[in-house]
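step=encode ok
step=design start
structure_in=
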């Protein structure tokens, strides 16, 4: 109940790590920035560690009390089932975390919960991660520039075995599928055949009709070099939500040129420093980036903007 209440108090606008930091009372830079250390829920679950809360979130995703809004970069939202749970709580059994399980004991078909409606094949997931690391090393890019972990998870649910199916994977548009998808398709096809995997009968196609119009509007106005403030105002979005939408566009493989806005808002020295950091970082973590770069000198918005440019230039 603490977990769902915290998600609700945070207006269902934040990702797992942020929610956990609030629950355990970790006053990180982001927590202070949003003044969430002043909330009633701050520190309510500090008697448990972050691994416990991560496991509970995973279990609640599995039991559909929570969902991760993929189109909004994985923020946690409460489902109707979760709302019922808040009114009439019941006990939830938490499964072991990946760290607690022995990798040597893994078997084909072992599964772990994912944020989508299903579970992922753990062995295939590890094979895909190894393939991703190899390709990233060859391309001299951080792995997340090629495919994010959320995309690998969806591959382990849908088992795409051709290019058309790959384009339906979360965070993989036609551009990324053509550029990086074939080795993953080949691996998945072999895995499915060798292990006689029964794939989902009806491939779940992403449905983002309600957001497609907004995305087209954003892309068109960035092409016209309209300021982000004007784009956000026209669509009644906060600056933060606009950046989230732009990140979603980039993750799907669409290339955007935002140099016009970056040059107006970020000095050249900061641009160069952030780009160098992103090129050498293997972690796709904004929180880690601002901590490493220095929150006194760099803003989260600067890092997000440069990360959008970096992912667009290098990955799309």
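sequence_out=
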């Amino acid at each position: 109940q603490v977990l769902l209440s915290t998600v609700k108090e945070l207006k269902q606008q934040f990702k797992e790590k942020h929610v956990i930091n609030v629950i355990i009372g970790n006053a990180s830079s982001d927590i202070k920035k949003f003044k969430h250390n002043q909330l009633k829920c701050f520190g309510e679950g500090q008697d448990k560690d972050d691994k416990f809360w991560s496991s509970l979130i995973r279990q609640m995703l599995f039991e559909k009390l929570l969902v991760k809004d993929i189109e909004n970069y994985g923020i946690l939202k409460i489902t109707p089932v979760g709302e019922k749970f808040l009114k009439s709580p019941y006990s939830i059994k938490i499964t072991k975390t990946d760290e607690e399980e022995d990798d040597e004991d893994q078997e084909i078909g072992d599964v772990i919960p994912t944020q989508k409606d299903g579970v992922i094949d753990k062995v295939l997931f590890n094979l895909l991660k190894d393939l991703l690391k190899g390709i990233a090393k060859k391309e001299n890019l951080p792995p997340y520039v090629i495919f994010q972990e959320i995309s690998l998870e969806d591959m382990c649910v849908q088992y795409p075995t051709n290019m058309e199916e790959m384009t339906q994977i979360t965070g993989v548009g036609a551009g990324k599928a053509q550029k990086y998808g074939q080795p993953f398709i080949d691996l998945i096809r072999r895995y499915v055949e060798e292990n006689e995997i029964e794939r989902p009968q009806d491939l779940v196609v992403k449905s983002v009709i309600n957001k497609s119009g907004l995305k087209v509007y954003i892309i068109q106005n960035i092409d016209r070099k309209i300021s982000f403030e004007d784009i956000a105002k026209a669509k009644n979005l906060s600056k933060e939500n606009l950046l989230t939408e732009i990140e979603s566009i980039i993750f799907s493989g669409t290339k955007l040129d935002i140099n016009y806005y970056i040059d107006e808002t970020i000095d050249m020295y900061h641009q160069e420093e952030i780009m160098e950091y992103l090129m050498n970082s293997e972690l796709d973590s904004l929180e880690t980036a601002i901590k490493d770069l220095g929150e006194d000198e760099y803003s989260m918005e600067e890092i997000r903007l440069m990360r959008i440019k970096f992912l667009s230039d290098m990955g799309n």
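step=design ok
step=annotate ok -> Residues 160 and 171 are 14 Å apart (CA to CA).
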